[in-house]
Design a protein that fits this description.
The chain is mainly β. The chain has a domain at about 45-165. The chain contains no helices and 17 strands.
Length: about 180
């Protein structure tokens, strides 16, 4: 968990790698692999890469591989790439691989590429998206690099989408670049 205005900063070409696994508790909710939240909570690299991998713990609902929310930020300010990989877990609903909400931001202000890859829980029922970007100011933005978003919805019920961008969520690149999903 990275929150309450905490920062992880790499100057120059140093790489940042974070791996997290949620707790195994079959009766509870909110077992995140990696949780980054709150205003001024940042993971920042200039020319080094940022790699974040999260696997949710078991539970019923809201078990995300990666949760980026409440204005938390993942930033590349130079040529460093950002790679985020998440796997949801849980037995009921809303168990996303990657969930960006509440103003969470993934941003490359230089030439760094952004890659998001997420898989929703395969053992749950409905609303288990691979990647969900939801809410005002929730953004994936690259000034000069490309953006690749790859998601796989899982589950036995309805609306398990690979990639879901809703309610003012935003994905954008600079004028000469493309994004794919």
């Amino acid at each position: 968990m990275i929150r309450d205005e905490a920062s992880i900063v790499s100057q120059d070409k140093g790489n940042i790698s974070i791996t997290g696994n949620g707790s195994i508790n079959a009766t509870e909710d909110d077992n995140y692999g990696v949780f980054i939240a709150d205003t001024n909570t940042k993971i920042v690299s200039q020319d080094g890469s940022i790699k974040i991998t999260g696997t949710a713990g078991t539970g019923k609902n809201y078990n995300y591989g990666i949760l980026l929310s409440n204005a938390g930020q993942i930033l590349s300010t130079g040529n460093g790439a950002i790679t985020i990989t998440g796997a949801g877990s849980g037995t009921v609903s809303n168990n996303h691989g990657i969930f960006i909400s509440g103003g969470g931001v993934v941003s490359s202000t230089g030439k760094g590429n952004i890659s998001l890859s997420g898989v929703g829980s395969s053992t749950a029922t409905a609303d288990n998206d691979g990647i969900r970007i939801d809410g005002t100011n929730s953004q994936v933005i690259s000034a000069q690099g490309s953006i690749e978003i790859s998601g796989k919805g899982e589950g036995t019920g309805n609306t398990n989408l690979g990639v879901r961008i809703t309610t003012e969520g935003q994905v954008s690149t600079g004028t000469a670049n493309n994004w794919s999903r």
